[in-house]
Every structure is written in structure tokens, then in C-alpha cells.
Amino acid sequence: MNSKVQLGIKVVLILLSTYFTYRIYSSIMQPIKFQRIERVRICDVTEKLENIREAQLAYKTENGAFCSDINELVAFVDTGVINIIERKDTSFMYYDKVYQKQMNKDSVMLRVLGQEPVAVQLFGEGFNAQSLLKIPGTDSLFTMNAGQINKNAVDVATFEVSAPYATVFADVAGNYPQAFSKVANESLTIGSLTEPTISGNYENTYCKSE
């Protein structure tokens, strides 16, 4: 075997070695890099979901039911007002005909002191209600629905807001196919249409411990 053939074989082996080394390195680093992106985005999205939950609770207080339309909820935060209520526990004496004597009865007095914009009451001055509309980093709206279930013979208002992973990571999914494939069908969700809960499926994660 002449020297040129030997040199050619060495070059091919070096190239193959470099290629396979890169493939191994890439397969190891892909999930690590995706996890870094995932962490930041999940925290951004869950922050919005929790703000939407606060808006939903305020909407229900004022309207008696949760909102089923994200645009309507954002408009409520943007232009709506909330009553500022003073609560005072009190008691009074009354004559009980059954026991035929004076008895004490506890009571609660509510007084409306005024009104305050929803955005200011919930999130403080300068809050942009439109920031609740879209999933962070995308042009897509949060998916939101509301309804009612019967639990233990009691009608309970429900709502659910979600952000699919396919939307949250749409711009980077193609760069990390192996890592993304493991979460492609998942979503970040708060509330439930089938259970009386307003918790998120992401709670007790790293976002909650920081």
C-alpha cells in the first residue's frame, strides 16, 4: 500500500472520527440546551397563567361566573373596575321565640367605599392588560374556556387556560427534535373544566421555588 493510499485512509478515518464525535456531543448537549430554553419559557408562561387566574377570580366576583373568552377577560382587566369593600364583623341581640329569651347573633356588615380599576387593584399601576392576551414569545392567544360542574350536589363554576408546548416552543422545536419530542404533546394548564380546581399542572416546579 503506497503512502498516498495510507494518507487517504487516515484522512477518512479522521473525518469519520470527527463526525461521530460531533454526533455524540450533539446528542448529549441537545437536551441540556433545550432544558435551558424550556426553563425560561415555562416560567414566563406560568407567570402569565397565574395573572390570568387572578383576573378570572376578580371577574367571577364581579359577574358571578368565570369568563370563557380571553379577549373579554383582557378587556375587563383593561377597562373594568372593582368595588372596594369594607368588611366589619358585628353582633346584636335579638329575642328568640323558641328559647323565649334574648340571644346574641353574629353578623357581617359590608360597605362599598369606592371603586378602583381592575388592573391597578390586581397588578399595580402601569400594568398592561394586553400582556395577558398572548402566550409569551409567540403571536398565539392562550386557549381559555369556562363552564360549570356539579360536585357533591353543588354547582361549581370552572375555568381552564392552557398553552400547548407545540406553540410555546414552535420556533425552536426543529433545532432540538429529540428533546422536544418528549414534551411535544404536553401543555401548561391552569384550572380545569372537569374538576373544581384553580391550580396549575406546573405547580411545585422550579418556577415555584425561586
Describe this structure in words.
This protein has a domain at 28-80 and 126-209. The longest helix has 61 residues, at 3-63. The model has no long low-confidence stretch (mean pLDDT 84). Helix 1 (3-63) crosses helix 2. The chain has helices spanning 3-63, 70-79, 118-123, 165-168, 177-181, 206-209; strands at 81-96, 101-117, 143-151, 154-164, 187-192. With 210 residues, it is an alpha+beta fold. A three-stranded antiparallel beta sheet has the order 3-4-5. Strands 1-2 form a two-stranded antiparallel ribbon.
Describe the main β-sheet briefly: 3 strands, antiparallel
How many alpha or pi helices? 6
**Helix-strand string:** HHEEHEEHHEH
Question: Which percent range describes the beta-strand content?
Answer: 25-35%
Structural class: alpha+beta
Strand order of the largest sheet: 3-4-5
Note poorly predicted spans: none
Number of strands: 5
Overall average pLDDT: 84
Residue share in helix: 40-55%
| Silhouette | elongated
List its traits.
single chain; 210 residues; alpha+beta; two-stranded antiparallel sheet; 28% strand
List the helices and strands and how they pair.
Layout: H1 3-63, H2 70-79, E1 81-96, E2 101-117, H3 118-123, E3 143-151, E4 154-164, H4 165-168, H5 177-181, E5 187-192, H6 206-209
Antiparallel strand pairs: 1-2, 3-4, 4-5
